[in-house]
Amino acid sequence: MINIAKPFIGEEEKSAVMAVLNSGQISPGKKVEEFEQRFAFYINAKHAIATSSGTTALKTLLMGYKIKHGDEVIVPTLTFGATASPILFCGARPVFSDVDAETFNISAQSIQEKITPKTKAIIPVHLYGLPCDMKAIHEIAHEKNITIIEDACQAHGAEHFGKKVGSENSAAFSLYATKNITTGEGGLITTNDDIVAERCRLARNHGQSTRYNYVELGYNFRMTNIHAAIGIEQLKKLDLFNDARARNAKFLSENLPKSVRLQKVNAGLKHVYHLFSLCINNRDRALKILNEAGIESNAYYPVPVHKTELYKKLGCETSLPNAEKICGEILSLPVHPAVTDEDLSYIVEVMKSICA
Asked: I need a labelling partner for 350 at 20 to 30 A (CA). Which of 135, 138, 278, 303 fits?
């Protein structure tokens, strides 16, 4: 089976974990601080704050911006559910936006249509590792005085006109096992706002300014030194991983049948291909053939979030035609660094047979 995703854990990560275990300093500490500093430098952000997952990173950021009951936050409906659920946990309301038919990312026009006096933030998702049209989103947010919080959980190292996502706005990254780099579970926040950074550090650690001095309501969203040790070694390899993903994606883009519709990468954007995704007619049949042929593939995501049971109950259902169409046709193929040239040729061969 050619797996759709695969974590790459080398001897460096294993040695780093053993060093932490042997030190006895397993709880959050110096390794977490080192990982934060290294990631902030990599992204070119003032602060990086490690958390227990990408979901808690996003929830912590919302708390950092004091998103609360009665507020609205605009999110794309073509995403994983964890983009929207932290908004609910803050007592706010997710407002679902449609996506661009070609890039599959949140549509600036749809954002504009969804803004109300209650809109406090926009969460653009850099879907599959492709940066959103941040220039257009910045113009909207600046005009309306709305906060931008980037969901970069699939976009470690992705760039928008030479700037890494998460370098200009506050952002949440995931370090789940299938991401471009992993700590098993974990997350990171980047921000240039000192006040937001301090609130986030309080929120992830029981609201403590110093030990046992509780100044805000907080959670235990901390990362351990074990996870951070893995992350430090993974970060050293991130650019190599991303280069391999891009090479593999380039081969597929140039050789797949013309009848499939690829995610469009506009000029000035660096896609890091967390997932290589395309639209195809009769998607479910294609998935069946691919998986039977030993090519693990999947639909990310087969149902737009606003049409799932929870959000229908909350009255979020609306008409978002681009996302609804894409969700019925989307399919992802393996492009992670372990995919070989022979694997890629085989994937193309099977895809040609499907489209014949």
From this structure: 303
**Tokens standing for 228?**
């951070």
Residue 317 has pLDDT above 90, yes or no: no
What is residue 280's predicted lDDT score, i.e. its pLDDT? Answer: 98
Structure letter (DSSP) for residue 281: T
Beta strands in the chain (DSSP E): 47-51, 72-76, 93-97, 119-122, 147-151, 159-160, 163-164, 170-174, 187-191, 208-210, 213-214, 261-262, 269-270, 276-279, 330-333
CATH no. of 11-233: 3.40.640.10
When pLDDT is averaged across residues 239-262 and rounded to a whole number, the result is: 98
| Cross-strand pairs, 205 | 220
pLDDT per residue as tens digits for the range 60-113: 999 999 999 999 999 999 999 999 999 999 999 999 999 999 999 999 999 999
**What is the predicted pLDDT for the residue at 253?**
98
Q: Which of 263, 58, 66 is nearest to 151 (CA)?
A: 58
Residue 317, helix vs strand vs coil? coil
Q: How many CB atoms lie within 10 A of CB 338?
A: 14
Question: What CATH topology corresponds to 240-355?
Answer: Aspartate Aminotransferase, domain 1 (3.90.1150)
Q: DSSP 3-state helix, strand, coil percentages of the chain (rounded to 5)?
A: 40, 20, 40
Please, are residues 208 and 214 in contact by the beta-carbon 8 Å criterion?
A: yes
> Considering the entire predicted model, what is its pTM?
0.97
Domain boundaries, the chain: 11-233, 240-355
Residue 250 parent element (H or E): helix 225-255
Residue 320 backbone dihedrals phi, psi, to 5 degrees: -130, 80
The beta strands (E) that lie in 70-113 are given as 72-76, 93-97
